[in-house]
Amino acid sequence: MPKISLVMPCYSLTAELLDMAIENALTYRNQVDELIICEDGGRISGNLANMSNIYAYFNENKGFTANVNRGLKLATGDFVIVASSDTQLAAGNIRDLCVDGKITSPKNEQTDELWGACFCVPKEILESRGLLNETMKTYYSDEEYKERTKDIFQTVDSVKVLHEQQQTVKVAGVEGKMDDDKKAYENLVK
Q: What is the CATH number of the domain that holds 8?
């Protein structure tokens, strides 16, 4: 049976965001072999550290993309799932996302394409196709990755993940401030 790592990027600036991250991490914990929680300049949490196999902390906020990439580099699983701290497993077996040779996301209301809030990548694809592009700090890095890997993507209907819609970016004050990331993305896809 393949080993599954789950990377959860967190930005726990408030007690509410920390509680949400803990609650959501618990929904995945028993279905993965390795839980990697990457805290990006928020609160250091003994609870998150205790439930994870690896707890990584940036003193300074590096942004979503760098935080995800750090977790991807630390992962030792055959498959690596990225699940934002504002997502939770609602139904299904997370292992269904693990499809050889494919990047997958659960089917959701927002898109039938790669979904930055929750996606799974086989380790060999990470090695051959690379990590998220850190030119974009918060937004669009998943869009760029989606474009780069669309030939090997599929949705998985049997897994349901609930997303609490950008809770961390609202608290951080970056909601709607994506002009620099949008320009970087547009320059890459020209």
A: 3.90.550.10
Return per-residue pLDDT of the chain as tens, 190 residues.
999 999 999 988 888 889 999 999 999 999 999 999 999 887 889 999 999 999 999 888 888 889 999 999 999 999 999 999 999 999 999 999 999 999 999 987 777 788 888 999 999 999 999 998 887 777 677 888 888 899 999 999 999 998 876 655 555 555 555 666 556 546 666 6
Contacts of 181 (CB under 8 A, 6+ apart): 136, 137, 138, 139, 140, 141
Both tokens of 127, joined, read: 């090695």
**Per-residue b or e along 111-141, where b marks 16 or more CB atoms closer than 10 Å to that residue's CB:** eeebbbbbbbbbbebbeeeebbbebbbbbbb
pTM of the model: 0.88
Q: How far apart are CA 68 and CA 10, in angstroms?
A: 9
Q: Which domain holds residue 163?
A: 4-189
Q: How many domains does the chain have?
A: 1
**Cβ–Cβ under 8 Å, residues 36 and 52:** yes
Q: Which residues contact 127 (CB under 8 A, 6 or more apart)?
A: none
Element (H or E) spanning 29, and its range? helix 15-29
